[in-house]
Amino acid sequence: MSRFIAAHSVPFTEEALIGLAKEEAPKFKEVGITWIRTHCDFDDNKHFCEWEAPNKEGIEQIFKRLDIPFDGIYPVKIFTVATASFEK
Fold first, then answer.
1. Torsion sign across C-alpha atoms 21, 10, 48, 50
2. Between vectors from CA 36 to CA 35 and to CA 42, what angle results, nearest 5°?
3. What secondary structure does DSSP assign to 17-60, as a single string?
C-alpha cells in the first residue's frame, strides 16, 4: 500500500479533527484507505495528514465528499533516521 501526505491550509479545530477521526475514519477503511496521523499547527492553520491508500485519487474523493479543502496530496516514502533506512 502506498503512503501519502495531504497538506491543508484550513482552520481545523481539535474538536473537528477528533470528530472526523471518530465519525469518518472508520468509513475510509471500508474502501481500503487509512488515515494514519495528522501533524497540526493550529496557530498557522497548517495540517499535514499521513494516509495509506492504493492511490491519491481515493483520498481526493474523500476530501471532496467531506468538503475538506487541501493544498496537495503527495506520495511519500518513510525514512527512519535511527536506522538510516527507508520503510519497505
1. positive
2. 90
3. HHHHHHHTHHHHHHTT-EEEEEEEETTTTEEEEEEEES-HHHHH
Q: 30-41: buried (b, 16+ CB within 10 Å) or exposed (e) per residue?
A: eeebebeebebe
pLDDT in tens, 11-58: 999 999 999 999 999 999 999 999 999 999 999 999 999 999 999 999
| CA 22, 74, 78, 45 torsion-angle sign | negative
Contact 37, 78 (CB under 8 A): no
CA distances from 77 to 1, 12, 28 (A): 11, 26, 21
Which H or E run includes 76?
A: strand 72-76
